Structures are given as structure tokens and as C-alpha cells.
Amino acid sequence: MINNFKLAPSILSADFSNLQSALEICKKGGADWIHIDVMDNQFVPNLTIGPPVLKSLRSKTEKFMDVHMMVIDPEKLVEPFARAGADNITFHLEATDDPNGVIDLIHSCGCKAGISIKPKTSINDVLPFLDKVDVVLLMTVEPGFGGQGYIKGSNQRIKKIKSFLNQNCLDNVLIEVDGGVKLHNAKEVIDSGANILVAGSEVFNAKDPIKTIKDFYQLSKS
Ligand code: DX5
Ligand code: ZN
Fold this sequence. Notes:
The protein has 222 residues and is of the alpha/beta class. It contains 9 helices and 8 strands. The longest helix has 14 residues, at 154-167.
């Protein structure tokens, strides 16, 4: 049994005309977190969800709202997303000159703080910030779109983070893995050290999304 395993279905792959149904799927499947992909068409070439949409979702669910900000100048959006009901706010290391300032701001708003890196960013670059965050999110596809393939070699990056956390008594920091996570590779990702798996297309494009969520939890126990 894996400690702390959580699934965070990404609503990026859900039907945006019926997000309430996506929330129902997450509830019935027993997902712990809901992953909200925020894109600004500058940090990544796509444009998605802002604070007003999160606020509406917040009014319909008690679930833990995991906001993944793929935006430049993340400090400008921390307070609006916190006010809209975010529980965790993750920003990208590549998107700011002041990661410590963003982490402090997120915590001062009463949210958990996550830091993320893109697949080509060195793991070493994020290590100095791990004693200040609650979550480290490793992108395992180039951020911007759902439905891409898991980048080969990502398991080694997860293991490197995991062993750094172990060696530095930072086991309370959660490792979240985002991009290309499917039922067929979930076990190896968990075994590499992931605590939280984000799954978008695998859940919301499935014939039976509720069963798919349950299947992820079954796998985590195997
Ligand atoms: C990509 C997003 C992911 C995406 C994952 O930039 O951060 O959260 O929705 O989608 P899948 O699971 O389809 O790779
Ligand atoms: Zn994401």
C-alpha cells in the first residue's frame, strides 16, 4: 500500500460545457484532488481557466482544488486564485525570478504551495526550494495540452527528487507527476516515488471515467 497516494483528475480533458458532470465523476470515482490547469497563452501556447471558473467549481464541490498555474508573473494570480477557493497553488520555477517570494505569497494566502518544472529543466534547479514547499510537480510532457505521451526517462527524474527528499528529511513534501499518466504506466510512476498522479485524458476520454478513477486507486494498492 502506497502512503498518501492521491489521484488528481485534470479537468482540462473534460467537457468544458458541462464541468459539473466532471465534478460528479470525480466524486463518484472517489478522487481526492481536482487538478485545474491554468494557462495564459504566454508561458504555454494555450488559454484555459481563470479565477471566476474556479469560483463556480468551488461552489459545487468540497474536493481539494489543485491549481496548476502555467503562467508568467504567477504572483499576480496567487491572490485571485486563493480567493476563488484554491487549496493548493503550484507555479512554475521557469516563470518567475523570485520563487521564494511566490511561495511565501501562496502560504500567506492560506494555501499549500507547489513548485513545478518543465521536462527539460534540470532537477538540480528545483532542489533549493523543496524545503519551503508542500508539493513538487514534475511535468512529464511539455506543458500546454492534454493527451500527450509520457516522456521517457521521467521515472529517473522522479527517483532523483524522491531520494533528495529522503536524504533531507523532507518526506512531507508530496511528489506530483503530471502528463501522460495512464493506467498502463501508473504503477511504475508510483513505484518511482510519486504520491499524486494527475490524469486528464485517461480519465475523461475513458468509456467509464468513474471506473478509471477507481482503477488508479486499485493499482496504487497493488
Ligand atoms: C498539461 C497539463 C496536464 C494535462 C494532463 O500542460 O498540465 O495537467 O491536463 O493531461 P494528460 O493526463 O492527458 O496528459
Ligand atoms: Zn497540470
